[in-house]
Write a structure and sequence with these properties.
The chain has 108 residues and is mostly beta strands. The protein is built from two helices and six strands; from the N terminus they run βαβαββββ. A four-stranded antiparallel β-sheet has the order 2-1-5-6. A two-stranded antiparallel sheet has the order 3-4. Strand 3 (67-75) and strand 4 form a beta hairpin. The chain is globular.
């Protein structure tokens, strides 16, 4: 399995991520002859202890994300409600496109 090594900033392990519409929604939009929103590049904070990925609401709005369902997750302060959206997430290595890229797939 390949490993990616990153330097950390004073804010923690900050990575460049690309967030976009998921594959099935992309196919649906193309078949409907509708425009597919371009993926959005954003700074991201890697939290290895989290079971979910948080995305800025402005990014979700720009991508036209549709609420999949409400759920909850557990934090150090206890359970909190969250909204789930089906999106694509890619993280490349510290050199960008020249490095291996990880693309996430939803667990459901």
């Amino acid at each position: 399995m390949p490993y990616l090594n990153y330097t950390t900033s004073p804010d923690g392990p900050i990575l460049e991520a690309v967030i976009g519409v998921d594959g099935a929604s992309t196919v649906d939009l193309l078949q409907a002859d509708a425009p597919v929103p371009l993926p959005i590049r954003a700074r991201s904070l890697l939290d290895r202890g989290s079971d979910l990925t948080a995305v800025d609401p402005h990014i979700l709005q720009a991508l036209g994300a549709v609420l999949l369902r409400a759920a909850s997750t557990v934090t150090a302060a206890g359970p909190v409600p969250v909204n789930l959206f089906k999106m694509s997430l890619s993280i490349s290595g510290p050199s960008g496109a020249a490095d291996p890229c990880w693309s996430g797939r939803p667990w459901w």
